[in-house]
Amino acid sequence: MHQPAIPHLAEADPELAQLIEGEAKRQFEKVRLIASENYVSTAVLEATGTVLTNKYSEGYAGKRYYEGQQFIDPVEVLAVERAKALFGVDHANVQPYSGSPANLAIYLALVSPGDTVMGMGLPAGGHLTHGWNVSATGKWFRAVQYGVRKDTGRIDMDEVRDLALAERPKMIFCGGTAIPRTIDFPAFAEIAREVDAVLVADIAHIAGLVAGGAHPSPVGHAQIISTTTHKTLRGPRGAMLLSDAEHAKALDKAVFPGLQGGPHNHTTAAIAVALGEAARPSFRDYAAAVVANAKALAEALAARGFDLVSGGTDNHLILMDVTGKGIAGKPAAKALDRAGIELNYNTVPFDPRKPFDPSGLRLGTPAITTRGLGVDQMPQIAEWMDRTVTAANNGDDAAIDAIAAEVAELLAAYPMPGWA
């Protein structure tokens, strides 16, 4: 059953309670490899479900527009101070509702409509809010995009520099949503200084790895850092903006009143819990294990003939082209889900297929590492994936069902926060 238990919900709305119980059971029985997903602790779950959700708190601690903030202010201050200490920054804003609104606040704080901004192209592994054309950030600003080399699948910093010198952006984003390699923050910072641009590091995917010492930190290189609080950081669905002192006031004004009203206080409390957990020595062990598992899984997949973008991974994330396996990304992802292996279909750099039916798969190890799986289990996962793709090509549903049973049998030995 779901933990914490939901007896009041089950009585008031049994239909919804049944759906939640079903989702909890699904998360327990599946090898969850979506790179942006994780399991939060029971403490984070409890904080998210408290009476803090009842309270409006427009403004910031000590400067609210509503009364009754005697306990809310200390909650937010606790989250802010923990964020500053964990990442070693001058300023933290924990109010953004999620990653995309956090990034929009950066635009509002720093640039004006029509200004030139620069970010990684979505097909190369960037994020929609880094100036991609279907996003508001691509419509309201003059966005120029860098990518990766076709021969290596990696960012060529010389090409990034040439583009920046030619276009003179006011703001440069580094980071993204499907980057399996270490981000060279010092190199980006040098380019930003050369063209007098503000450097923004979007570490939504790798924030937990940064906090745990498993990926270099952008602090001291990027003036502004945006991140979600879930993914590798293992917190609730929220976001933070971290910055130097110079940009603190502009960012705060952009979040409130620029884009948002009252913060979600229950989420703020859960962020504080997650940041407290991330400050413990055990979290450094977790971050290292995430990377070790990803490397082991990448090696096992490559040994079975999967084509990995850039040849492997330095972090939690693997991006691969499954064309050589005789299948496209979407049908592969759907077959793997039936087999108890949850990931997402994804474009790969220079993909000839359309985004809704791409050539690739994106997967990562944050969630399975939280469950306690280690490098010894990674070859088995790769073997299941290979068998599933073969079965999908042969239309062998029975083989896929058999793999799902094997997956559930393995995971039964690994506890999950949120299910008992």
From TrEMBL:
Catalytic activities = (6R)-5,10-methylene-5,6,7,8-tetrahydrofolate + glycine + H2O = (6S)-5,6,7,8-tetrahydrofolate + L-serine
Q: Which SUPFAM superfamilies does the record cross-reference, listed alphabetically?
A: PLP-dependent transferases
Q: Where in the cell is it found?
A: Cytoplasm
Q: Which InterPro entries match?
A: PyrdxlP-dep_Trfase (IPR015424), PyrdxlP-dep_Trfase_major (IPR015421), PyrdxlP-dep_Trfase_small (IPR015422), Ser_HO-MeTrfase (IPR001085), Ser_HO-MeTrfase-like (IPR049943), Ser_HO-MeTrfase_PLP_BS (IPR019798), SHMT-like_dom (IPR039429)
Which Gene Ontology cellular component annotation is one that this UniProt entry carries?
cytosol
Q: Which cofactor does it need?
A: pyridoxal 5'-phosphate
Main location as per UniProt: cytoplasm
**Binding of (6S)-5,6,7,8-tetrahydrofolate: at which residues?**
L122, G126, H127, L128
Top-level EC class as recorded in UniProt: transferase
Give the record's keywords alphabetically: Amino-acid biosynthesis, Cytoplasm, Methyltransferase, One-carbon metabolism, Pyridoxal phosphate, Transferase
Source organism, top-level taxon: Bacteria
Q: Which Pfam families match?
A: SHMT
**Could you say which residues are annotated as the site Plays an important role in substrate specificity?**
H230
Q: Name one GO molecular function term.
A: methyltransferase activity
Protein's job: Catalyzes the reversible interconversion of serine and glycine with tetrahydrofolate (THF) serving as the one-carbon carrier. This reaction serves as the major source of one-carbon groups required for the biosynthesis of purines, thymidylate, methionine, and other important biomolecules. Also exhibits THF-independent aldolase activity toward beta-hydroxyamino acids, producing glycine and aldehydes, via a retro-aldol mechanism. Thus, is able to catalyze the cleavage of L-allo-threonine.
Q: Which family does it belong to?
A: Belongs to the SHMT family.
Name-wise, this protein is: Serine hydroxymethyltransferase
Per the UniProt record, the source organism is: Actinophytocola xanthii
Whichever gene encodes this chain, its name is: glyA
